[in-house]
Amino acid sequence: MAFWLDLMFGNPIGLLSMIVIFSTIGIVSYITWMFIVKSAPKQ
């Protein structure tokens, strides 16, 4: 755990990579959610 904390907050490159990873996960989950909502059958 200390390795991950040092990787995230020890240098700006690690923090930037963590921001990129989490924003990518957020964007992909948002697109998946929009696809599920749009492809749902109309009531």
How would you portray this structure in words?
The chain is mostly helical and 43 residues long. The protein has one domain. It contains 2 helices and no strands. Helix 1 packs across helix 2. The termini are far apart. The relative contact order is 0.09.
Care to count the β-strands? 0
Q: How many H/I helical runs?
A: 2
Principal-axes shape call: rod-shaped
User: pLDDT below 50 for ≥5 consecutive residues: which ranges?
Assistant: none
Cα radius of gyration in angstroms:
17 Å
The average pLDDT score comes to 86
Please give the domain count.
1
Helix content: over 70%
Structural class, from helix and strand content? Answer: mainly alpha
Taking the sheet with the most strands, its summary is: none
Oligomer status? single chain
Strand residue content: under 5%
What's the end-to-end separation, in Å?
48 Å
- Run of helices and strands: HH
InterPro entries: DUF3149 (IPR021494)
Protein name: DUF3149 domain-containing protein
Pfam families: DUF3149
Keywords: Membrane, Transmembrane, Transmembrane helix
What's this entry about, in short?
With 43 residues, this protein is mostly helical.
List the helices and strands and how they pair.
Elements: H1 2-9, H2 12-38
Helix pairs in contact: 1-2
Name a few traits of the molecule.
43 residues, mainly alpha
